[in-house]
Amino acid sequence: MNKCPCNSTMGNMVPSATLAITSKAKALKAAGEDVCAMSAGEPDFNTFEVINQAAIKALNEGKTKYTPASGIPELKKACAEKLIKDNGIACAPEQVVIAPGAKFSCFTAIAALCGPGDEVIIPAPYWLSYPEMVRGVGATPVFVNTKAENNYELTAAELDAAITDRTKLLILNTPSNPTGAVYCRKTLEELAEVIIRRDIMVMSDEIYEKLVYDEKLPHISIGSLSPEINEHTITVNGFSKAYSMTGWRLGYLAAPLWLAKRIIALQSHTSSNATTFAQYGALAALAKCDDQVEEMRKLFAKRRDLIVELMSGIPEISVIYPTGAFYLFCNISAFGLSADEFCNRLLEEGKVAAIPGEPFGAPNSIRLSYACSEDNIRTAISRLAEFCKKLK
Ligand code: PMP
Ligand code: GLU
């Protein structure tokens, strides 16, 4: 059968470049190649032991059967309590949907809300999966370029101008992958006013919330700003980044009840529940790991300082000072190469793996992840500096 071209919107997605390059870097290293990986979108720590033990206990107790599609009641309750306590978001357990990864939560939120004819506003640079998900459900992504000098924040005026009568959803991501920017309260308040007035929904992806480094820029959840905006908000979060649980595939969202019900129906026909014993590990993560998360955050803060300082030795590359997540977004336009070319040559000639900006909607930039040891950061940036010298 001739499979191409076909009418499947889902079947026309392009593979995730972050996952592909991260796997390639891991494979090169495993094959003994001297590659410095700055590509990983995952913490380099082991999952905290208390989480592992809770999942092992659950396995040994036979917690290996189906759970409700939206998760075990204890975990939904714990997530709702966490959203109230940590984020100030009013939330009942019935509004929480536990999913196999925050990525799937993003997808079910988009799919339950949007379809052909709908527009979804995505501030650029963006996490590369959002546009693919939007196109996947047949809706249209509408990109709004944000500026480095505005800390890569979408402004209320830019949002207002981008909304049409087809707009269903705005996607926000703070702290941001790939820029490391954190939205400030004032901008979020102004955006909330527009979202309510123009009556659209917002999906706020807060998966990096625990990794913020500037006391003046704490993580703020847009859903916490007023009961009205909460009615328009889907908050997405997960366990991958805060607890180093990327392989566990565990995320969640909280949405207004009418939408949570739709999302649960969708999940009940697609993934069913997130892995049962993993959900018990997540209970321990929420209950017992605050201190370890804080230690990890401090280590990331040190690495952030180190990489920013080392990059100041490469004046051709400009960066914005990241205040969250574990990425440094670097403008490489001074070299006259596309980001793809730059990253391919950097890997071949400089033995450093980085992610090109094209799939993030930023063709002049590359993303370096500092979720790696200080030694790795030092070696990578000195190799990058050498490579840039050769390019000049
Ligand atoms: N959102 C953002 C911005 C991310 O970087 C990631 C990283 N994978 C996710 C969502 C999804 O995380 P996961 O599916 O591992 O929970
Ligand atoms: N989100 C991470 C990244 O951007 C992991 C890879 C992925 O899920 O796409 O690198």
Structure description:
There is one protein chain. This protein has helices at 17-30, 49-60, 73-87, 102-113, 129-136, 156-162, 185-198, 227-230, 257-269, 276-288, 290-311, 339-350, 374-391, and strands spanning 36-37, 96-99, 119-124, 140-145, 167-173, 201-205, 233-238, 251-254, 318-319, 327-331, 352-353, 355-356, 365-369. It is of the alpha/beta class and 392 residues long. It folds into two domains: 17-41 and 291-391, Aspartate Aminotransferase, domain 1 (Alpha-Beta Complex), CATH 3.90.1150; 65-288, Type I PLP-dependent aspartate aminotransferase-like (Major domain) (Aspartate Aminotransferase, domain 2). The termini are far apart. Helix content is 42%, strand content 14%. A seven-stranded mixed beta sheet has the order 2-8-7-6-5-3-4, sandwiched between helices. The chain is globular. The chain contains 13 helices and 13 strands. Helix 3 (73-87) runs parallel beside helix 10 (276-288) and helix 4 (102-113) packs across helix 9 (257-269). The chain binds 4'-deoxy-4'-aminopyridoxal-5'-phosphate and glutamic acid (GLU). 4'-deoxy-4'-aminopyridoxal-5'-phosphate (PMP) binds next to helix 4.
